[in-house]
Amino acid sequence: MLGSMSDAAPLASSSDAELIEALQARQPMALSVLYDRYASLVYGLALKMMANVSDAEDLVQEVFVTLGQGASYDARRGSVSSFLCALTRARALERLRAQESQHPFWKSWQPTCSGESVRAAPFEQLSMEERRQVVRAALSQLSDNQRQLLELLYYQGLTQAEVARHLRIPLATVKSRSRQALCQLRNSLQTLLR
Questions:
Q1: What is the per-residue pLDDT across 2-26, written as a single tens digit (0 to 9) for each?
Q2: DSSP character at residue 120
Q3: Within this chain, do residues 60 and 146 fall inside the same structural domain, yes or no?
Q4: What is the distance between the alpha carbons of residues 97 and 89, in angstroms, rounded to a whole number?
Q5: How far is the C-alpha of 112 from the C-alpha of 30, rounded, in Å?
Q6: pTM, 2 dp
């Protein structure tokens, strides 16, 4: 059992770095606070990639269990939200590739979206919509080529080599454009990355 809500209250105002330290010091309520803070972000990405509510919910649980078991988060490599997004993306791709290899025939018959939806609390909906608007604005500042590359890499799960073949451009071009696009996005999204 994680403990009572009053146990989490002192941690609620802690920074992400402090929560990670608390988690490493075996304070389980730190995971609860991180979950409250980032579950909707992880769930949104998981749902976008998995296109299935149940699979997305399972993936959210897996990501936070991994974090709670001491995932190798390194603050020098980025924010906790960036780490969780990278972990979510990696786990989603693993699952999608496993599903594809197990059922290649059925994949072509599967609907692209389950149509299921989950209702978030009003404040959570507002927060998610505000984030979406900031992300949409940042994406609109990218060139069409950069947006297309990021979509292929991060939402369709293609490797850089696969993107190069798909777009019929050199691999070096894919690498440089994706790097430029990510740097530009990072600068545009500084407020969300804190």
A1: 444 445 567 888 888 888 888 888 8
A2: P
A3: no
A4: 12
A5: 36
A6: 0.56
